[in-house]
Amino acid sequence: MKHITDIFFDLDHTLWDFDKNSILAFDKIFKVRHPTIDTQQFIKIYAPINQACWKLYQVDKITHEELRYQRLKQSFDALNYQISDEEIDIISHDYIAFLPDNNQLFDGAFEVLDYLHPKYKLHIITNGFAEVQQRKMYHSGLEKYFQTITNSEMAGVKKPHRNIFEYALSLADVPKENTIMIGDCIDADIRGAMAFGMQAILFDEKEIHSPEEGIMVIKHLLELKNIL
Q1: Residue 131: how many CB atoms within 10 A of its CB?
Q2: Is residue 18 classed exposed, middle or buried when 0-12, 13-18 and 19+ CB atoms within 10 A define those classes?
Q3: Three-state SS for 106?
């Protein structure tokens, strides 16, 4: 890793704990609008549906608006909870408004960033929406660590498309031979980066992936201190 000068991180599910922050956002909404819904139970259903919808969004099979609607609609349907489309639209709006104000990060995030920051230039590549991601980073105290933030709106494409990695490296002014990508999504973050020619490390905190030849895996962010 001696030739690595720049490290690119995914944000959601890698540094910023999307599931914990979603619980806080939905809990705030449900207490006011739907007090009979158990937030923990809802999140267990919502989390995999949200991930599945994001995978479709990454390959342009659904739109931004369909993503925000379908992940809620399918979750309420799975709960057999009767709710109108109008109410889903209100919840979707409130969720996006409340979610980025929460600041739960994965264990070890600040410690590993404090370790890496003096040694490397750090960057973000995210498929998330620009305004929302910026607020997440501000409220969680992540902004100070990163020199550039690339999102799919800026690049015009989403991970795993090679053009978003090319855009990010151009913004950072670094050749791909000197970079490494760290993220939780094996398709978007890892295979996408590797196909472009970057090295990559999969963050598999929940141990959902089987070992795969050629892919380096960590289960805790602090493991990066032994690698980089």
Answers
A1: 12
A2: buried
A3: coil
Tokens of 223: 């493991």
Q: What is the residue type of 179?
A: T
Cα(43)–Cα(208) distance, rounded to whole angstroms? 18
Cα angle vertex 68, ends 64, 71, to 5°? 125
Would you state the structure tokens that stand for residue 117, as one six-digit string?
Answer: 């920051």
The 3-class SS string of 175-216 reads: CHHHEEEEECCHHHHHHHHHHHCCEEEEECCCCCCCCCCCCE
Instruction: Report which residue type is found at 161.
Output: H
**72-99: burial string, b at 16+ Cβ within 10 Å, e else:** bbbbbeeeeeebeeeebeebbebbeebb
Q: What's the whole-model pTM score?
A: 0.93
Q: What is the pLDDT of residues 91-119, one digit of tens each?
A: 999 999 999 999 999 999 999 999 999 99
